[in-house]
Amino acid sequence: MEISQVIEVVFKIIEFCLIGFALFFAWNLFMHSKNSGGGFSLKVSEYVELSVEPASVAIGAGQPAQTELIEAEKIPADYVFLNHISFLREEKQSEFQARTGLTGIPHYDIRVVVDSYYKGALDRVKYVEYFLHKSYEEPIQTRSQKQNRFLLKELANGEYVLQAKVYLRDRQEPFLLQRYITLSLDKNYIRT
């Protein structure tokens, strides 16, 4: 048997072992999630435990649900979330491009809000710290106005992942959220 054949056999054995380990891990994760109601948790530090479970609230289109959260319950992962809209204003392009110095690139308005379908959730939010793309002049911005759902109004000339820390009044550790900012040519959006 030549050396190349030996190496090929060794790689096949390693590949077989890796597939076996992956199947074993997936089966254990499946059984754990099945036994725990569909979720899993990971203790990150003494004070922080990440818990992932299926959403417990389903709402119909255009129906803002107001689900009660029992005080003793852990705060679910879907307690607050980010939502966004983007739109292009053709008539403002020369102004926006002059402001950023990036000519020939479309600049979209983006609006990002914190939302929840849990009753009183936004009342518990103290402030939100948004982390935009590093190319922004002010990439970290804070909002504390609950009445407009902690609205972030900005311009974007490319898609990116926006991150946010949502600080609750009665909790030391913030919620960490992400939203992929897409840019849309939605002409039906009513601008505010």
UniProtKB/TrEMBL annotation:
PROSITE patterns: YEATS (PS51037). Residues 69-192 form the YEATS domain. Keywords: Membrane, Transmembrane, Transmembrane helix. The chain crosses the membrane at residues 6-30. Pfam families: pYEATS. This is YEATS domain-containing protein. It comes from Alteromonas pelagimontana.
